[in-house]
From TrEMBL:
UniProt keyword list: Membrane, Transmembrane, Transmembrane helix
Positions of transmembrane segments: 52-70, 77-95, 107-128
Record protein name field: Conserved putative membrane protein
Start and end residues of each HTH iclR-type domain: 167-195
GO molecular function: DNA binding
This protein's record includes keyword Acetylation: no
Pfam families: HTH_IclR
Originating species: Amycolatopsis japonica
Superkingdom per UniProt: Bacteria
UniProt cross-references to Gene3D superfamilies, sorted A to Z: Winged helix-like DNA-binding domain superfamily/Winged helix DNA-binding domain
Length: 309
């Protein structure tokens, strides 16, 4: 008996079968479409006309409602649902125009298709893409950020959010004047904002590493020292996590692998990871019962044996 195929081989086989089916379906539809074009009558009387259109609109309504519910929660299932809703709107526009072309309302159907149904379908398609890649504010760490990271008060304040100034002062033990100063500085640098009720909220950002070569003199040394301390803290954090790995219960996971990629594929991997973590950062602004703060890391680099000395 031959050994079972590895999971990766099964995935590759399924992918090839799916692509073959799609290519075959596209090929078969060409002669089928030509056949229909020559055999279908221009006119055809049918029953259940009302049920067909009412049923279609009910399905469209349900797609809109489910898409809105899933989209507000930034669930991955919203992406195919919004795409399907966009496709249904295009179908609705097509059949409204074509089936009503000989009626007195044909220009109404054309106007609805051009100004309502097609534009909404385009918006839904972009909304589906935005759910996958709604980018965080992106910039490089600057000297102001380094100053704030060197001051523990800013870390205390951001961990106390969302909250009003009085609650932040109570939770951190800082004076109200210190809290106001920290929040003002954080706001000026794009890390926090006020909501409509006056509470302060954290704003996730995509902060890239600063390049020491972009600075001169003492500033360059400061940036270099910041990066050295940052990676020392990362090593210490991962060492601590390894030592306590049996204490996290269901709240920890790890995965490692090796892949051979081109530079373009590596950039694609990096972009997809950023899109994924961005979606989860945007999912919820306020804490809910049962949630925990998690440290999430993504590292990818050539192994030591492949790097020339």
């Amino acid at each position: 008996m031959s050994p079972p195929a590895p999971a990766s081989n099964v995935v590759i086989m399924i992918r090839r079968m799916l692509l073959t089916v799609l290519a075959g379906a596209a090929s078969l539809l060409v002669p089928w479409t030509v056949y229909l074009a020559h055999t279908l009558p221009d006119r055809y009387d049918t029953g259940q006309w009302r049920a067909a259109w009412v049923g279609f609109d009910v399905a469209l309504l349900l797609c809109f409602a489910a898409g809105a519910w899933l989209g507000m929660r930034r669930r991955r299932a919203a992406v195919p649902l919004l795409s399907a809703t966009a496709a249904m709107l295009c179908c609705d526009a097509w059949f409204d125009v074509m089936l009503g072309w000989t009626s007195s309302e044909r220009w109404t159907s054309v106007a609805l298709a051009v100004f309502v149904e097609i534009p909404v379908a385009v918006v839904l398609a972009f909304a589906a893409r935005r759910l996958l890649g709604d980018a965080l504010p992106k910039r490089s760490v600057n000297l102001n950020d380094i100053t704030m990271r060197e001051d523990p008060r800013y870390h205390l304040v951001t961990r106390a959010l969302p909250a009003a100034e009085e609650d932040v002062a109570r939770r951190t033990g800082l004076a109200r004047a210190e809290v106001d100063e920290c929040l003002k500085t954080l706001q000026d640098n794009g890390f926090v904002r006020r909501d409509r009720k006056g509470n302060w909220l954290s704003i996730p950002q995509d902060l890239r590493e600063p390049k020491p070569d972009d600075y001169d003199g003492a500033d360059r040394e400061r940036v270099t020292a910041f990066l050295d301390a940052k990676y020392a803290n990362e090593v210490a954090l991962l060492s601590w996590a390894a030592e306590h790995r049996d204490e996290f219960g269901p709240w920890a996971t790890a995965q490692r692998t090796s892949a051979r990629l081109t530079e373009a594929e590596f950039r694609e991997l990096d972009a997809e990871y950023r899109e994924l973590i961005t979606r989860y950062c945007h999912r919820r602004r306020r804490p809910v019962q049962g949630e925990k703060e998690l440290s999430v890391r993504f590292y990818a680099f050539p192994p030591p044996e492949t790097v020339p000395v």
